[in-house]
Structures are given as C-alpha cells and as structure tokens.
Amino acid sequence: MRVIPAMRTLALPPARACWFALLLLAIGCGPRPRPPVLAPPDDTSDEARAAYRVAVETFDAGELPTARATFESLRDDDRVGVLAQLYLGRIALALGPPGPAADALASLAETADEPTVRAEAAHYAGLAAAMADRCG
After folding, report:
1. Which is nearest to 70 in space by CA: 87, 94, 82?
2. What is the distance, to the nearest Å, from the Cα of residue 118 to the centroid of all Cα atoms in its chain?
3. What angle do CA 43, 35, 52 make, to 5 degrees?
4. Pseudo-torsion of CA 63, 69, 75, 77, nearest 10°?
5. 54, 47 in Cβ contact below 8 A?
6. Which of 7, 19, 104, 136 has its CA 20 to 30 A from that of 53?
7. What does the alpha-carbon distance between residue 10 and residue 32 come to, in Å, rounded to a whole number?
8. Distance between CA 70 and CA 65 in Å, rounded?
9. 3 state SS for the chain
C-alpha cells in the first residue's frame, strides 16, 4: 500500500484515532435545535393568543391529537389561522401518511404572506415529500 506523503503527518495510532473520532462526534453532535415558535401578530386577540400558546405547548409536549383539535379551532382566525395551518401540517406529517401533509404544506408555502411561515412550510413540505418518496 502506498501512503501519500502528506497523509503521513495526519496518521494517528488506532487507539488515538478512536478517541479523536469520539471527540469529533461529541463536539459535532450537540442538542438538536428546536424549530422556532412563531409568535402571533401583535394585533391578535387575547383569546386567540392564549389558545395558540396552549396549542403550541400541547404540540411540544407530544400530545398531537389534542393539539390538532386546538389548532383546528384556530384555523379560520384572521391572525393566527396561517400559523395553525403550519402546525396542522406538521401534525399531519407526524401522524399520517406524508403525501397529504406534503400537499398541504406545499400549498401553504406558496400562499402564506409571512416569509417565515413560507420558509417553515417549505421546509416541512420538503421533508414530507421525501418521506412520501416524491423526490427525484
């Protein structure tokens, strides 16, 4: 086996190589960042704001059917409806087949007025499309 001269300086004994790999893994694999919690617009009613906050907390706690019911009640709200649709798409992705979730999230990514909502919806639509084997 021929060793490239520049590689000789990078060669580590096997025991050190294992420790080095573990160190790199520990450094590079920190906690997974959470998706941002999108705040409702400032002019949202107190009732809608409180319901949205409870729905997000329920979603974060993993109680998806309960969160879905709360987000469904907010879907038609003028101010938080688009945020509710984003979470409903994420819940659909988590609970059901990814195809319908991909369609709903892609539609939201095209029609939402808020750039942050469009970006989040496009992100989850891409994940759903990949899970539905629609890529390629």
Report:
1. 87
2. 13
3. 35
4. -100
5. no
6. 104
7. 30
8. 9
9. CCCCHHHHCCCCCHHHHHHHHHHHHHHHCCCCCCCCCCCCCCCCCHHHHHHHHHHHHHHHCCCHHHHHHHHHHHCCCCCCHHHHHHHHHHHHHHHCCHHHHHHHHHHHHHHCCCHHHHHHHHHHHHHHHHHCCCCC
For 94, residues 6+ apart whose C-beta sits below 8 A from its C-beta are: 64
Token digits of residue 13: 């004994």
Q: How buried is residue 47: exposed, middle or buried, by Cβ count under 10 Å (0-12/13-18/19+)?
A: exposed
Q: Centre a 10 Å sphere on the Cβ of residue 109 and count the other Cβ atoms it contains.
A: 20
Q: How far apart are CA 67 and CA 87, in angstroms?
A: 9
Judge if pTM exceeds 0.70: yes
Residues 106 and 111: their CA atoms lie apart, in Å, by: 9
